[in-house]
Design a protein that fits this description.
Blueprint lengths: L1 H45 L4 H20 L5 H13 L3 H10 L2 H7 L5 H14 L3 H9 L2 H6 L22 E2 L13 H10 L1 H8 L3 E11 L4 E10 L4 E11 L2 H17 L9 E8 L2 H5 L9 E7 L5 H18 L1
Parallel strand pairs: 1-6, 4-5, 5-6
Antiparallel strand pairs: 2-3, 3-4
Helix pairs in contact: 1-2, 1-3, 1-4, 5-7
Length: 331
């Protein structure tokens, strides 16, 4: 019986792998076909005398003809997506990478972005982090790329630790915690909400983060201190400690985090670890406090706001612009 069970399991695995490869092959072929359709539409448009009007009529007529030939799947919207796909990814060499590693549903979201840098970022992160379509859509809506960009400074003004900035967002968007939109919030409740949705919080933190502990105790000869959340980033090869503050950032908070980072480096950091990073996650912060504190120019200490609900695009853009202004004063 055991031999038969093992035999059946082996055959089942062979068939499942074959079907998976077949699905990938079909997907890759269809993505390439969509790109080729898009290229042919653009080529035909460029031969028209009145490109805008001609292009719209061309796609409408093509949609009717292809629907008659092949049935559903060739609406005006779908053919327009093929055209856009080619225009956003005109390099056929890049196409083959996209065919192998990204789904059409992913690509339809990414190719609507205007910035070439943002397109490259979301393509790379989707592949490397294996984002689902829902995760990709959420990161685009929450302007994940722009929030990372807001913490960047010019290389000439950065120290050797500037690569840390590529992993720090401001603000962090925590709508998935389902916290009340307004009103005072207990730090213990915020911490528990993060633990309850740890997988989503790790996604929001970004690439390379692993959870280590909550309320980690670090002790000196005379005192015990407790760090709210401790993570390790295997790309940066360092610990990242987070202190949660549910009110406005104060200079005492910065001093406390500075002490935590120094103590953690002294007591917990391994020989092969890079210096510890400390992030104060606060409800709001004052630019003056940040500018005239130990945070100024410090590549181990950061203060980032968190937002309880997903802001509108206008609100996020305004907040990112404000953060950029603050960074520019530190250069």
């Amino acid at each position: 019986m055991n031999t038969l069970t093992t035999f059946h399991s082996d055959i089942k695995k062979i068939l499942e792998q074959a079907r998976h490869k077949a699905r990938l092959a079909v997907h890759s072929a269809m993505v390439e076909a969509y790109w080729l359709i898009g290229r042919r539409i653009v080529e035909e448009e460029q031969s028209g005398e009145h490109k805008a009007q001609y292009g719209k009529r061309l796609i409408e007529d093509l949609s009717v003809a292809l629907t008659n030939d092949f049935g559903k799947g060739f609406s005006y919207a779908n053919l327009y997506n093929c055209r856009l796909f080619y225009l956003k990814f005109p390099d056929q060499t890049i196409l083959y990478t996209l065919c192998r590693e990204l789904g059409w549903s992913h690509l339809r979201l990414i190719m609507r972005l205007d910035s070439a840098q943002a397109i490259e970022y979301y393509c790379n992160e989707t592949r490397q982090q294996q984002w689902t379509v829902r995760q990709l859509e959420r990161n685009i809506k929450s302007h994940s790329y722009q929030r990372l960009l807001a913490t960047q400074i010019e290389p000439s003004a950065a120290s050797s630790g500037s690569s840390h900035l590529e992993f720090i967002k401001d603000p962090y968007v925590l709508e998935f915690l389902q916290l009340p939109e307004t009103g005072q919030l207990l730090e213990s409740r915020l911490e528990q909400a993060i633990i309850n949705e740890l997988q989503k919080f790790l996604l929001e933190l970004g690439k390379g983060f692993c959870f280590v502990a909550r309320q980690m105790r670090i002790s000196t000869e005379t005192n015990h201190f407790y760090i709210d959340l401790v993570f390790y980033n295997y790309l940066l090869k360092c610990f990242v400690i987070i202190d949660l503050k549910t009110d406005k950032l104060k200079h005492q908070d910065i001093g406390q985090m500075d002490m935590y980072v120094r103590m953690f480096d002294d007591l917990k950091r391994g020989e092969d670890d890079n210096p510890t990073i400390g992030i104060i996650l606060c409800d709001s912060k004052d630019e003056t406090i940040v500018k005239y504190s130990v945070l100024e120019g410090n590549q181990q200490l950061f203060a980032s706001k968190y937002q309880r609900v997903l802001p509108t695009e206008e609100e996020l853009i305004a907040e990112i612009a404000r953060e950029k202004r603050l960074i520019s004063t530190q250069e």
